[in-house]
Each structure stands twice: as C-alpha cells, then as structure tokens.
Design a protein that fits this description.
By secondary structure, the chain is of the alpha/beta class. The protein contains 7 helices and 29 strands. It has a 6-stranded mixed beta sheet, with no helix packed on it. The protein has a 6-stranded mixed beta sheet with strand order 17-14-18-22-21-19, sandwiched between helices. It has a 5-stranded mixed β-barrel with strand order 23-26-25-27-29. Bound molecules: ligand LQZAQKY5 and molybdate ion. Its EC number is 2.10.1.1.
Length: about 425
C-alpha cells in the first residue's frame, strides 16, 4: 500500500480545510481506554461511562430553616404552643408531641407528625412556650426527600468533561472514584538548527524555541499528558531517532520542517519509518504546510514552524483529535461580531487571532495585531481565532464572525449568556 493517500496535498492551495479535518479526525478509530480516578483529581478528565445517582437527595424530609416543626392540621394563627423536643442536623428523626412545637435546626430530620417548619424569627418565645404568627402552609420551610435528586437520575453523561460541578454532586452522593478516559499521551518534537531553549545563549541567527513550550502549555490545558523531546537538528536521521523514541505516545506532534525546503525532513523521516500521511498541505492561512497521518500505533501531526501557523494547526486539528481520543466533543465555536474589516484572497480558510469583549449582550472580536504568522505579540491578548471560510472575500465591522476559543471548554459562553 502506498503510504501517501491519494490527493494528499490537494490542489496547489492544499486540501480544503473541512476535508482535511475530516481525514485527520478519522485517524482516531476509538476513544482511549478507561481508568478510575478519585473525584478529587477528575477535574479536566472525560467521563468514560454514565454516572447515575445512587442516593436520593435530600435523603430524608428536613428543615430548611432554624425554627420550630409543627403540624398545620387545626393550627390557628397566634396560637401558643409548648416546645417539646429538639432535633439538630446529624441526629435521627424524633417525634412531634400532638399540640406542641418541636425545636429544629436547619438540615435536621423533621419529626414524625410534623408537616412544616416556622422560622424562629416568626415566633415569639416566652419560656418554654412559643406564639406563632400566621399559621404556616403545610410543607413550609421543608426540603422533601428526593426533591433535588432521585436515586437513579442521570448525573453525568458519558463523554462529559468533568469539573467542580460534577465533583460537588458526586461527592454529595458519596461517590469516591469515577471512570474516566486515560489522558492522551503526546510527545512534542521541535526541529530546527536555529532553535535554543530558554537560558541558552543565542548566537547570530538563532532564536529561542517558543513552539514547544506553547504546544506543551496548550496540550496540558486540553487535558493531555505531554513529554517534550530535545530539539532535533535539521537532519533526517535525528528526526527518525526522535520519532522512534516516541512510542509511548498516542499522538506525536512535530513543529517545523514540514514545508518544501531542503532542510525540511519530517515527511521523509516519517515515511522512512513506515508511517503514512493522510494530509500534507491544507488550504488554510496560516498553517498551510501541515501534515497528518499515522506512525506505528500513534497519530502524527506535523505542524508548521511559524508560531501562528503552529497555533492554528493545534487549535483546528490537534484539539479535536485529543477530544476524539478522550471520547468527548471539542469545545463549540462562539458567535461573535467582527470589530474590524478586511479584504482577502479567497481559496484558503483563514484564522486570525482575536480578543473578545462584551458590548451589551453581543460578543465582539477585535484583531490583536497585524498580519504575519511569525508574530508573537498578537497572541498575548488573543482569546481565540476568528474563522473566515475559504470562499469569503471580505468582512466588514459588525459582520458575524465565528470564533474558536482557545480553552478546553467554552469559558466565554457562560459569561456571555449570563450578561
Ligand atoms: N517556498 C516556500 N517557502 C515556504 C512555504 C511555501 O509554501 N513555499 N511556506 C511558508 C509557510 S506558510 C510556513 S508556515 C513555513 C513553514 O515551514 P516549516 O514548517 O518547514 O518550518 P521552518 O521553515 O523550519 O520554520 C518556519 C519559521 O518558523 C520558525 N520556527 C520554527 N520552529 C520554531 C519554534 N520551535 N519556535 C519558534 N519559531 C520557530 C523558524 O525559525 C522560521 O522562521 O514555511 C514558509 N516557507
Ligand atoms: O502557515 Mo504559514 O505561517 O501560512 O504562513
């Protein structure tokens, strides 16, 4: 079998973005295996199975206020009642003596025979007697067994990205551990003889490697377990060695060396090791020189070297791949309005870094810097990437703009909805 799929690079402009994404996502056949983790460490993990309530909550009829439990049947306004009995939270259910009031504290089981609670602010207490004001309605200030959650209710769907909300409810159920997908393991390999790590002195022509730290940080935020390899020099043998040493990975990511220059060795190294490519050039800007395929048991994505191109490839290809491995959905896009205008050549999907802000109830997206996939400053204030489809030749201020937020979940959605 030819290791290179037909139409790998599409036309001169590359494979259409949507087609490339479909091909790349198809590289993941099934989600990663499940494992159990304590709920204390399940935040950011994906539920591998549905979780149902094993307890009804509240587990018993209980007082919602500090006050007096009474029986409303035959109770008159302004009645005087003797206080007999007392129940506090954590104690077992007591009994209401007929014709009396039972002292009760919030969260305590309502005594047998009582059907409501009067808040202590609403009674006059004189010695062992209380005078009620208005006679309460049956059920007043009571929390009924099961009114919040019924045993058997579906609490967490399979594929849910877990966070503090699920931790809270699972804890209330007494559930200590939850089944989640194993974290995707990702190896990140930067290549380029110009690259130096932080702390290393730059000689003429050299730069610090920013892609590997960028990718590592993004990948961790997206739930992956990441290992970085030392920077690989621009030669095929070193790249082959680096790829060979990444067998731990579910996903191998390379940065740079995927374009057409004579120093670009990623593709040849991959193919020499028996890997295959499903995509080599994508009709997107930035990020056109992007390769993806398989090597051994791992999925491979070769990102371009320019930082904004590597970012665009990571957000549009790597994040959905991770979501698929973890058996969840990638975060949704946001419907914003463009705070800018631009004219452009059609033929490639384009991704522009944008900062988001709310004006009234609308989310507005402003560009955070000028064009240039090598620029880093525009990333500092970007919340996501604005997406212009391949056929769109212009955008005017106020036009709708779809935005891919950078986060693992769509943090902005809730804020916008609540505004
Ligand atoms: N003749 C052509 N030249 C280029 C094309 C093309 O189609 N024809 N495509 C351009 C585009 S678009 C991009 S993007 C780059 C991608 O090339 P590579 O992925 O092979 O990357 P390099 O050429 O090695 O590097 C590009 C650029 O990025 C800098 N870089 C690389 N790694 C890092 C890193 N880890 N941290 C920070 N910056 C990095 C590198 O120094 C270069 O400036 O190719 C264009 N050329
Ligand atoms: O991917 Mo390149 O950076 O399109 O410009």
């Amino acid at each position: 079998m030819n290791a290179i799929s037909p139409g790998l690079a599409g036309s001169g402009a590359g494979i259409a973005f949507e087609e490339a994404r479909a091909r790349v996502l198809a590289l993941v056949e099934r989600p990663l295996p499940a494992e159990e983790v304590p709920i204390d460490s399940c935040t950011g993990r994906v539920a591998a199975a549905p979780v149902r309530a094993r307890l009804s909550l509240p587990g018993f009829d209980q007082a919602a206020m500090d006050g007096y439990a009474v029986c409303t049947s035959g109770l008159r306004p302004d009645a005087w009642l003797p206080v007999a009995g007392r129940t506090t939270a954590g104690e077992a259910q007591g009994w209401l003596l007929p014709g009396s009031a039972h002292r009760i504290l919030t969260g305590a089981p309502v005594p047998v025979g009582a059907d409501s609670v009067i808040a202590q602010e609403d009674v006059l207490q004189v010695g062992v007697m209380v005078r009620i004001g208005m006679a309460p309605d049956a059920g007043a200030h009571l929390r009924r067994r099961g009114e919040d959650i019924h045993a058997g209710d579906l609490l967490v769907r399979e594929g849910t990205l877990l966070d503090w909300r699920h931790v809270t409810v699972l804890a209330a159920q007494g559930i200590e551990a939850v089944g989640v997908r194993r974290r995707p393991r990702v190896v990140v390999i930067s290549s380029g003889r110009e690259l130096r790590r932080g702390g290393e002195t730059l000689r003429p022509g050299q730069i610090h490697d920013s892609n590997q730290p960028m990718l590592r940080s993004l990948l961790q935020a997206w739930g992956a377990e990441v290992r970085a390899r030392p920077v690989v020099a621009d030669d095929a043998a070193s790249m082959r060695d680096a790829l060979c040493s990444a067998s731990w990975a579910d996903l191998i990511l390379t940065s740079a060396g995927i374009s057409v220059g004579e120093e670009d060795h990623v593709r040849d190294a991959l193919l020499a090791l028996g890997g295959s490519l499903a995509v080599l050039k994508v009709a997107m800007k930035p990020g056109k020189p992007l390769g993806a395929g398989r090597i051994g048991d791992a999925v491979f994505v070769g990102l371009p070297g320019n930082p904004q191109a590597a970012l665009a490839g990571a957000v549009t290809f790597v994040r959905p791949l991770l979501a698929r491995m973890a058996g969840t959905e990638e975060p949704g896009t946001l419907a914003a309005r463009a705070g800018f205008g631009m004219r452009r050549k059609t033929g490639r999907a384009e991704f522009v870094p944008v900062g988001l802000s709310l004006r009234g109830t609308d989310l507005w997206a402003e560009r955070t810097g000028p064009d240039g996939s090598g620029r880093l400053a525009p990333l500092l204030h970007a919340d996501g990437l604005g997406f212009l489809p391949a056929g769109q030749d212009a955008i005017e201020p106020g036009d709708p703009l779809e935005v891919l937020p950078f986060g693992a979940g769509a943090a902005w959605v809730g804020e916008a909805a609540g505004a």
